[in-house]
Amino acid sequence: MSQNDESLVHRPATVADVARIVREASESSTSLTVVGGGHGPWSRVPEPGVRLELSALSEIVVEGDVVHIGGGAVWGDVATALAGHGLALSSGDTASVGVGGLTVGGGIGWMVRAWGLAADQLIGAQLVTATGDVVEVSSEQNADLFWALRGGGGNVGVVTRFDFRAHALDGIALAENVIAGDEAAVIRAARDLLRDAPRELTVTYMDVPPMDPSAPAGARLSAVWAAPEPERLREVIAPISSIAGVETTVSTPAYRDILLEMPHPEGDDVPAPPGFIGGNGLFAELDDQLIDDLVAFRRRYPASVLFLRSLGGAFADVAQEDTPFPARHATWFVMAGGFDIPGMLDDATREAIRADWERIESRRSAEYGNFASTERPHAVPDMFTAAAIARLREIKRTWDPRNLFRRNHNIVP
User: Fold this and answer.
1) Residue numbers of the chain with a pLDDT score lower than 50
2) Count of alpha carbons within 13 Å of 45, Cβ hemisphere only?
3) In the prediction, which pLDDT does 3 show?
4) What is the DSSP string of 210-246?
5) 201-208 and 304-310: which strand pairing?
6) Which three-class secondary structure string do you get for 49-113?
7) Fewest Cβ atoms closer than 10 Å to its Cβ: which of 107, 142, 199, 386?
């Protein structure tokens, strides 16, 4: 079939099926879209060419502290399976997020300060290359591919199995801090606390409008402690919970239960998600001016969202050159933007949102590709270091010289 044909959906049941489909797409120069969990906006709108959905390859096998996960599995199922073994992995924030997409893009999750990125826990994989060959990948086998998988964004093949080293986890403590007072004061307190906080602590600040299904409306700071120690968590976050206007509730839920449940459209005829004007960034530091600008942005635009996640700890332990993921020196991840819902914004407001975000964006160290909702080839240099791009391009020339795997933040060979 040609690239101008309508989307042809394949849901392979075996690795051999995946290899055959990839080989046929390569031989016919057909556009190939690979879908793991199907959570992201790209996966919901059919594109011309071949659509390869991996949902049937979702087996989860635990062997000691090593877990083998199919390329179509989602993190909610992984968390449930591992809990029975007293284990966990640092994953995404949402149960329906695919293991594949999150991992190859890096993977910032609730245990990022305790255990690093999802990609940092990867110890091996099974990969279907652009020629339809099935290869094993690790630090000792096809080490260049292994390096590229740990944050390179899906540029080198279809991962049919991920191998992770899991972590012992007896439980967690969760503190929900609902903010009815000075949001900037809370963010500053969190920033100061996280400079020297134990790595068991990871926090998220979120302020969303009522129309956003991802969280309760309003501003709150959620803190997760990587152990079932609620009193220890209360002690550590006291600088935040003692601020006027902050109401704190501490509990000990299952790790799986803190992963958000998002509506998941069924079928192939799914409308595109609403537009989003804004972006994200990995920031070396949240200085006072940046905090003020972020809070002002959220207040200025009623249909906007502000999201922050603490980094550091184990995330910073990994040397920059050891993975393609950028900005290991960053201490915070920030996302801000406005929902462009028809009838809600006029052109002047759209332009104002863009201008405000560009001023914020200019201070970031890098963009996090997993939170970029559209393919923007010109933005790829902001998602990697120059050295990582050069190495990824060399690996692409070796393993995918015709650029079959281009439906991503594409590294052109």
Assistant:
1) 1-5, 42, 45
2) 9
3) 39
4) TT-TTS-SEEEEEEEESSS-HHHHHHHTHHHHTSTTE
5) antiparallel
6) CEEEECCCCCCEEEECCEEEEECCCEHHHHHHHHHCCCEECCCCCECCCEHHHHHHCCCCCCCHH
7) 386
Contact 78, 67 (CB under 8 A): yes
Task: List the domain boundaries for the chain.
Answer: 8-52, 57-169+377-399, 173-371
Q: What CATH topology corresponds to 173-371?
A: Vanillyl-alcohol Oxidase; Chain A, domain 3 (3.40.462)
Q: Which residues pair with 66 in a beta bridge?
A: 63, 165
Residue pair 304/209 in contact by the 8 Å Cβ criterion: yes
* Token reading at 398: 């070796």
CB contact set of 296 (below 8 Å; sequence gap of 6+): none
pTM: 0.93
Read off the amino acid at residue 390: A
pLDDT of 260 reads: 85
The arrangement of secondary structure in 57-169+377-399, i.e. its CATH architecture, is 2-Layer Sandwich (3.30)
AA letter at 130: A
Nearest one of 252, 382, 295, 407 to 330, comparing CA atoms:
382
Report pLDDT for 263: 60
User: What is the total residue count of the chain?
Assistant: 413
Q: Show the tokens assigned to 357.
A: 């975000």
